[in-house]
């Protein structure tokens, strides 16, 4: 406890800008010297892809080397740079506080993205993990709108994701790709990247309209009935795409163009976080919370409960459709089995592990479960014993998740030393 207190006091006045510079320095050290020098002299055959977790599980004798690598490359540089640069980043942060908030946010996001891009660019495995994790963030935040802020228990998100994935895939293959299933492209392939955002939106709208099949009959009920109806919807969508040969049927659909590189997915993730944050903090979001806490009281206070719930449900489904479209163009292949009960279990694990009613919690849950799942991959079957056990302990000691009922406060997050000392 004493060590933790000293650490907190030492770094309490370090602004976010310093932490980002420290992280960028650490990633640059790994990018330029990680393989040829640091990993070589520590006896590692290659750069650890997930902070040494995979190496530790596959080759226990390499644990000291992996820990040493993390300390040399990440821990020491980040702490050292963060502390030593605070003397000039605090005045910079103070200047940024006088400027519009959006300017400071964009500046920090650009620095964060460059760091993430550099880290993911070290190898293809990292790149795919980062892209899939960002898509998981979109999925987790979108289901939190329904299961957290709305207070319902929906199991239909894999169905919404499937609708978005198949609609966007069919449109890109039909319009911009020479495909065996759809024939010659209708439009020049060069226009594909420019039309892709509109195709994603079309997939999201299709998922949103599909959500009406759940919302209209189920919102006359609550609790277990909604869960049953939404679960049935997921299986209906899965069975439908399995039996539609025009979109590949059980064989699936492949050959999607590479329209979802890391920059595109990062932009969509930031847009999703910003839009959903504005939604849940708006009048509609407050009405949603009121309906969750007491529907009868909300109705008596002139809140249109049915309209509020259906709006939130369609809104969450829209972003699940966007995530499905991005997922299809990252993997470049989809089949009905990808949107089954296993996908539902992953999505629910992320949202309940991170925390309900919290965008921050959704981000933490998505990142944690994705990285944990990849880190424990060498354990194979035991991986699906360890992760559920962790979830059980979280549910016992933190019933609402690790970070619940906490919203993003960019102004507080980016504040300078002066503001921190004032407690602003």
Rounded Rg: 23 Å
Write the H/E string, N to C: HHHHHHHHHHHEHHHHEHHHHH
Which quaternary structure do these chains form? single chain
Q: Decide which structural class fits the backbone.
A: mainly alpha
The low-confidence runs, each spanning 5 or more residues with pLDDT under 50, are none
Helix content: over 70%
The strands making up the biggest β-sheet line up spatially as 1-2
Q: Number of folding domains?
A: 2
Number of strands: 2
CATH class term of the largest domain: Mainly Alpha
Describe this structure in words.
It is built from 20 helices and two strands. By secondary structure, it is mainly α. Helix 6 packs across helix 7. The protein folds into two domains: 102 residues, no CATH class; 287 residues, Orthogonal Bundle (ABC transporter involved in vitamin B12 uptake, BtuC). The two termini are 25 Å apart.
Descriptive tags:
424 residues; mainly alpha; ABC transporter involved in vitamin B12 uptake, BtuC; 2 domains; two-stranded antiparallel ribbon; 1% strand
